[in-house]
Amino acid sequence: MTIEEYKNKKKGQTISNNKYLSGLVKRTMICFFLVISIIVISLLNETSREYIKKYLLETNFEFSKINGIYDKFIGSFTEEEIQPVSNNELLTYSEKEEYKDGVKLTVDENYNINLLESGIVVFIGEKEGYGNTVIVQQSNGIDAWYGNVSNINVKIYDYIEKGNIIGNANNTLYLVFQKNGENLNYEDYI
After folding, report:
1. Same domain, yes or no, for 52 and 101?
2. What number of CA atoms fall less than 13 Å from residue 85's CA on the CB side?
3. What is the CATH number of the domain that holds 184?
4. DSSP β-bridge partners for residue 125
5. CA distance 176 to 98
6. How many domains does the chain have?
7. What's the confidence (pLDDT) of residue 184?
């Protein structure tokens, strides 16, 4: 290959790269413009605003459905691959009594709270009457509330396996089980 052939080949590659980058920038700008246009139009229209408010902000999104799809097409961990954090029973308590929408359990001081069922953390914060609360949407579609939790070692939207420790409770642990906003009988789950 001569020097002239090499220069012509490089020149052709540079023109080809420039066309690709130019096309990529144009497509990106068009997509950006379309997204901004859709957002502006939907915010100007009262019906669109109500739809967004109702279905995106007020509706409970069930992560368990996504987990089911994931398990179906990608697969789940086998029992050999899952290493529990604790070898103890998942839930040990000395007394239980009904409390508000669930149950109040008397547990040891600095009790490690093991997750009762695999799921996704959908809430971490204060709930009136329950203190610091972690809500996990379990793989079976049930929301499990763990109240009076300290030393929380999970974050919002973490996927956590059954048996993993989510935090500690000092002498009292509150549990509530809900599905689609309806309270369930706690005795079926502990």
Report:
1. no
2. 15
3. 2.70.70.10
4. 133
5. 10
6. 2
7. 92
For residue 113 the two structure tokens come to 């709270």
CA distance 74 to 97: 41
Question: How many residues can be counted in the chain?
Answer: 190
Note down the domain range covering 53: 3-59
The total of other beta-carbon atoms located within 10 Å of residue 36's CB is 10
Give the type of residue at 178. Answer: Q
Q: Is the dihedral of CA 173, 159, 118, 189 positive or negative?
A: positive
Angle (nearest 5°) at CA 95 between 94 and 100: 140
**Number of C-beta neighbours around residue 156 at 10 A:** 12
Structure tokens at 75: 């697969």
**Residue at token pair 């549990």:** 175
Tell me if 96 sits within 8 A of 185, measured CB to CB. no
pLDDT one-digit tens code per residue, 150-180:
999 999 999 999 999 999 999 999 999 999 8
Residue 164 backbone dihedrals phi, psi, to 5 degrees: -70, 150
Report the alpha-carbon distance of residue 105 to residue 176 in Å, rounded. 11
| Residues 168, 85 contacting (CB under 8 angstroms) | no
pLDDT above 70 as % of the chain? 74
